[in-house]
Amino acid sequence: MYQPPTGVRDLLPSDVLQKLWIEERLQRVFQQWGYQRIITPTLERIETLQASGSVDLSGILQLRDAEGASLGLRPDPTPSLARAVATRLIDTPWPVRLSYQTNVFRSTARPQEFYQAGIELIGAGGAFADGEVLLLLNDALQALGLSEWTLILGAVGFTRSWLSAAPEALRPRLRQALSSLDRVALEAETSLDPELKRALLLLFDLRGEPKQVLAKAYTLALSDTQQQDLQTLESLVGWLEAQGITVILDLSLVEAFDYYTGMVFEICVRDCLLGRGGRYDELLASYGRPAPGVGFSLNLEALQQVLMQDKQRPLVSRPEGGVLIVPKTPQAWSHALAKAAHLRSQSPERVELELLGRSPEAVLVYAEQIGIAQILWVEEDGTTA
Amino acid sequence: MTITIALPKGALLKETIARLQALGIDFSEFLDSNNRLLKIVERSGRYAGLLVRAQDVPVYVAYGQAQVGIVGYDVLYEKNLPVAQLADLGFGYCRMSVAVKKDAYNSVQDLPPHCRVASKFVRCARQFFDARVMPVEIIPLYGSVELAPLLGMSEAIVDLVSSGRTLKDNGLVEIEKIFDSTARLIAHPLSYRLNREGLSELLEAIHPHPVLA
After folding, report:
1. 3.30.930.10, 6.10.250.3280, 3.40.190.10, 3.30.70.1060: CATH of B3-92+182-206
2. Domain B94-180 classification at class level
3. Do B84 and A152 touch (CB under 8 A)?
4. Is the ipTM above a cut-off of 0.90?
5. In sequence order, what DSSP letters do the residues of A156-191 get, joined into one string?
6. How far apart are the CA of A257 and the nearest CA of chain B, in angstroms?
7. Is A325 helix (H, G, I), strand (E, B) or coil?
8. Which of A182, A184, A201 has the highest number of chain B CBs within 10 A, making it the mutation to test binding with B?
9. What are the structural domains of chain A?
10. Which one of A120, A286, B2, B166 has the minimum C-beta count within 10 Å?
């Protein structure tokens, strides 16, 4: 049989309804905060996608154009947006507020396609901009009816500053150990300065209730920048907790490959990861226009799953109501068309025409199947019943 | 809510159950030869145990069906799934080695290029020979791997060795150790970060870390 490859799927009309339900609510919030929607191409040149030098090439689904140039299907909307802002939106004053709803592709063991919605705030650095993005995120999740969510908040800049104290050759391995939560690998690192190793293990274990985590982190020997990073985190945590958001501070939160430079976060409901985001103050410079940036993306499939678990039913049921118009004979056809046109001009409800010449009994069954309760029979002379 | 622990069938099961029992978490029913249960909820209702094949332990943990698992490093390396590797539990020692027919080759460098290597641990074997820039053909086998060189199907095998008796009895010798393996304590990464239901207390109890700060 003809089936889509594993990792991609059809969204049938009922799936699309659920997806739109989520997208419309998110879009409304994004717009209220002044974020304008942008659509960037699905395909980018490989050079564009890896301009920041922080993208895992093996995760990109690649193809070639007629001239043999390497192209990639976007694995993440942010690099494309950064490119567009750096090269096309030159005249827009800072900050640029953009939102997107789009599909992304990954090349894992099997290629994957999924949908993301998110925002980017470009051209504003610092804790206020971080705060805006996190509070907007809270509004967006509230609009979906998700009140019980948890934010895992980290500070890549802070975490990385510890890694940079290690010999350069060791850094990728140490970062990998932190990002994949491999404590055994960290412990087994024999060539590391014992003091630094102790600090890294402490970082590895530093997560949980923000006040306790910060108190412990302040006991480390900190540089001025590291002090500042912790102060930024402290103010963010204060704003978030004032909104009733549960925050887990996680100072080991770092990815093996990413372009984040400041705060980073993951958005969870129960044990499900809904999305992630963070600050990227170096990404825009790789496209020729240095500017700070911060944003997040939500995975629509994960959102839908969590919302449906909460509600124990689909978010939207199939459309009910409307009118089915049945011409009784072929001669009644023009009257039926006119009637349908009239009804459509009167109300936004759907008006369908019976096209297959079904018997009256079959029409009743069909109307039931498509969820239409009202049937209008049209006679040859144009009268209806 | 309950914390679910994935336990490996086979060599590591007895010690795994003994370690949990020492914490008052009793899954000893799994050791009963008459037991057919695959899931046991322990008396307090706080913990559930899943009895699964060792290779499947990281799968259940990566997919969040179990928050905690105990499994050999060999399996973790081979499966390469996103799980948090939190402690070396020190038991169940064995090593991943390259072995050949006695007197056939003295070292891995002596193996002819494009030779065949039989193994149940396809990823281990592939990564090892790739790192040496040695082109080899890997033949996946799922048991009695020692037969392959004896019959001449492969020049070498990559397999787990504990006492070395099976190798010796079949006229094979180890020529190089790839890595040592012991039992590891693993956890679902997101559950570990979120630390719901006192997960970190359980992990800490299974393997206490020295106080750092």
Report:
1. 3.40.190.10
2. alpha beta
3. no
4. no
5. HHHHHHHHTTS-GGGHHHHHHHHHTTBHHHHHH--S
6. 15
7. strand
8. A184
9. 13-311 (3.30.930.10), 323-378 (no CATH)
10. B2
